[in-house]
Amino acid sequence: MSTGDTLDKLVVFLAKRDGIDKLVKTLQYVSKLAHWCAEPSRPELAKRAKSWETASGLSRKAFRSGRFLTGFNALRRAAPGEFGALAVLANAGEMVYYFFDHFTWLSRVGVLDAWVTRRACFISAFGEAVGYVFFIAMDLVMIRRGLRLERKLLREKGGGKDKEEEEEVRKIRMDRVMRLMATAANVADLIIAVAEVEPNPFCCHAVTLGISGLVSAWAGWYRNWPS
Fold first, then answer.
1. What is the per-residue pLDDT across 174-192, written as a single tens digit (0 to 9) for each?
2. d(CA 47, CA 27)
């Protein structure tokens, strides 16, 4: 791939809301890890890294304004079916997450009282965790089905070279990769949400949060990068 093609794809990627979010999320969690590394020996550098992390986090919250409507729209259009309940719970959790994230942002920039931050963070993170659990469940079910269908197609193919079946297998494998990326991102974000809902030494450690944030961001890069 030429440099020109890569640059064109980068422009398309950064033109998307999710593209900008993944870029800033990468900066946010790189700065978190930089703060942790520099804090013992270089406090001035650690202070700058912390400021960078805070600014990145606040900018992401501002940029996501109104995104809770995506979850609301998904709930409005949800159709009954085998994934009906899972889809409703997943999208409801996501909607709660993005809606209360507005209050977290407004309290942190000084528009609302500081006490709002803790309550809004808890409700937002709880909704986020619930949503991710059900999104992960749906993706795992679909991955399992894809594996079964792929094995069935390969058995029926029996060494032949049917182009339609080969294309179907290729699509199944690509879908599996995308769902695995989504699952990795959701598990990483679930760890970050648990650190807010139920603080514990493992989830709240800077390295755990930093690595989780980068896994989520880079999985999002992969999924949103133009083909």
1. 999 999 999 999 999 999 9
2. 15
